[in-house]
Amino acid sequence: MPARRSRAVARFSLIDTARSSQAPFFDKEMMRRPATPFAREVEHWLAAHIADRYSLDAAAAAFRLSSRTFLRRVKEATGRTPLALLQGIRLDQARRLLETTDLGIAEIAARIGYQDVPSFHRLFQRTIALTPAAYRRRFRGGIG
User: Fold this and answer.
1) Which ranges carry the HTH araC/xylS-type domain (predicted)?
2) Domain residue ranges in the chain
């Protein structure tokens, strides 16, 4: 936990006039709105199945709900769809792996459920505003 906190403080405190976005420094865990018990259970289930191919029906079945009810309840509890929630969890994990391991980008993508590395790369860059390699260079070791 202290390493996670120090990374968050480092991201929050850095000033980089060359950047065009604050996204690389944003720590979703610090800004996340309070979760309901249902939202925490869904996040935990999605994180436990991070590398699995996403299936709304499978996720809903795990909670003994119809797909439609599951989608509605997740959106009410988190403000996001289950797929968007999973993508956020996957990207958070990718960021941690980029910061703390020497795994290649393809290995990280596979570990978090992306078989198509270019798709992972585009999603990461669109969301974080840096390529995975640039993110690693900037945040390796948690000190920016």
Assistant:
1) 40-138
2) 32-142
Q: Would the CA dihedral through 18, 7, 44, 117 be positive or negative? A: positive
> Which tokens belong to 86?
């999973």
Percent of the chain with pLDDT over 70: 74
Q: Does the structure show a pLDDT above 60 at 95?
A: yes
Instruction: Compute the distance between CA of residue 25 and CA of residue 111 in angstroms, rounded to an integer.
Output: 23
Mark 102-140 as b/e (b = at least 16 C-beta within 10 Å). Answer: eeebeebbebbbbeebeebbebbeebbbbebeebbebbe
pLDDT at 27 exceeding the cut of 70: no
- Judged on CB neighbours under 10 Å (0-12, 13-18, 19+), 93 is middle
Q: State residue 18's pLDDT score.
A: 46
What's the whole-model pTM score? 0.75
CATH classification for the domain delimited by 32-142, as one of 1.20.1250.20, 1.10.10.60, 2.40.10.10, 1.10.150.80: 1.10.10.60
